[in-house]
Each structure stands twice: as C-alpha cells, then as structure tokens.
Amino acid sequence: MASIAAFLTFRAVIAISGNEGNFLTTFEWNPAGKPPVFGIAVLLYGTVISSIIAMVIAVPIAVGIALFISHYAPRKLAAPLAYVVDLLAAVPSIIYGIWGALFLVPYLDGLNSWLDTYFGWTVIFAKTEIGAARNLFTVGILLAIMILPIITSVSREVFLQVPKMNEEAALALGATRWEVIRMSVLPFGRSGVISASMLGLGRALGETMAVATVLSPSFLLSGHLLDAGGGTFAQNIAAKFDEANEYGRDALIASGLVLFILTLLVNGAARLIIARRKEYSGANA
Questions:
Q1: Where on the phi/psi map is residue 123: left (φ > 0), alpha (ψ -120 to 50), or beta?
Q2: Domain that holds residue 159
Q3: Per residue in 251-285, pLDDT tens?
Q4: Which helix (H) or strand (E) holds 38?
Q5: Rounded to whole angstroms, how far apart are CA atoms 194 and 199?
Q6: CATH code at 78?
Q7: CA-based max dimension of the chain
C-alpha cells in the first residue's frame, strides 16, 4: 500500500504543479489545454453524492433481508434465498451496467417525472432539463442494487453468529421475536453491519464500468439530482485514460490519489467506530 501511495503522490505532484486552475475547486477538466486547467470539484461531488444515495437505499433493505433470511424465513426458503444473494454479489459490474442502461434508465424516466412533479419544490428533485435519466440519481440507485447483495451476505452471517442462549433467554422472559431482534440480535451485530456497509461503500466509491455505462458525464455541477451530467473519479479515469497524453494521465492519477485517500478515510472511520463500540460494550478486540 505504501508503494501505491508513493507512486500516486509522485505523479499527482507533477500534475498539480503544472495546473493553472485550482485542483479542488475548478469545474473543468482540460489538462491538454494551453495552459492546462483541471479540477476535481465535479468528480468529488458526483462520487460522494451517488455513494450516499446508494447507502441510504441499500443499507436498510440489506439489513431487513438479512434479518428475514436469518430469523424469519423457514429453512427451505432461507437456503435458496441466501444462495441467490451470494450469486448476485458475484455478478460482474459490466452486467449491472448493461442492465442499468437498457432497463433501469428507461424505467426511471417515469419516476424522475413523478419526483419532479410532486417533490420538485425540494430543488434536489427538480428536473430542469429534458432527457433520459442518465444522472447521478440513477447511478445511486444502480450502485445500491450492486452493493445490496454484499451488505446482505455479510450482515446475514453476522446475525447467524448471535449466541442462541441470548435469544432463548429473551424468549423465555416473554419477549416477542421482534423484541429479541431489537434487544439482542441488532446490538450484537451492529459492528458487523457497519463493516458490511463499509464494504459496500468501498465498492460504490470505486465502481467504474457500471457508472460509465449509465451516466452521461459532464463537468457541470448541479444540485438537481435528476438533471443529466456529473461524473465520478473512477468513471472519469476509465473514460479518459487511453486518450490522455502523459501529463493528462498524471492529472487522472492525481484524481485517483484523492479517491485513494477518500477510501482510506472511510475505512479508517469504520474501524474507529467498530473499535469504540467494542470498547463501550466490553467486547474483546
């Protein structure tokens, strides 16, 4: 990891030192220009917003599915469901991307119109352009579908590790099944769910092919999630790397360094949260 960080930093310094724009705030990507001007503002916004949308959608649904498989579904149903979830986690990104472009985008046109009609007053769901749903909102939904099996699989395994004695004791005291889950299963599995969520977030932050297939990229920053455009770090690198000159590739590597740092910060924060919860609960590290 140290060698990767050193390589990214070295190439990023070369790019940033020749940049005539502000690397963090410029809304343009033209490292081949004279003078070269490029910035990551749009890419950072698109990466973070699409990942947040994905997490908001995926985490509650994944936890619900994991609880159903581990504590509600009969064995004859739980085993096939778990198998299907595991299979979905192994589907290649490009397959999700093709499905998203050919099915999800046309389907979400109607949803976008509905959101604009009834929730356009919130600004974020106001649609100011006419066109297909190739926007960050669609990307967020597609990413949610992609990370849902990952979070579900890990959470299910965590919930199955809850000591049966704890559940039986709660049931013996007259607790309902939901009360057992709320007071025993969820507290026990909280750290595992956080870990599962961070795994999903890591995939969402770095997803490339599915995003590139669905999104109509641009370097226009808009607070309207339903307007086409935007971009992410991984999508921008994949789209421009082959055609970029040497300096342009350094610029793309500089944006990759930001994604690398962002991923490290997310995982570091997750480990800190888990460690603090273990310390608070008295669990062994």
A1: left
A2: 2-281
A3: 999 999 999 999 998 888 878 877 766 655 544 43
A4: strand 37-38
A5: 9
A6: 1.10.3720.10
A7: 76
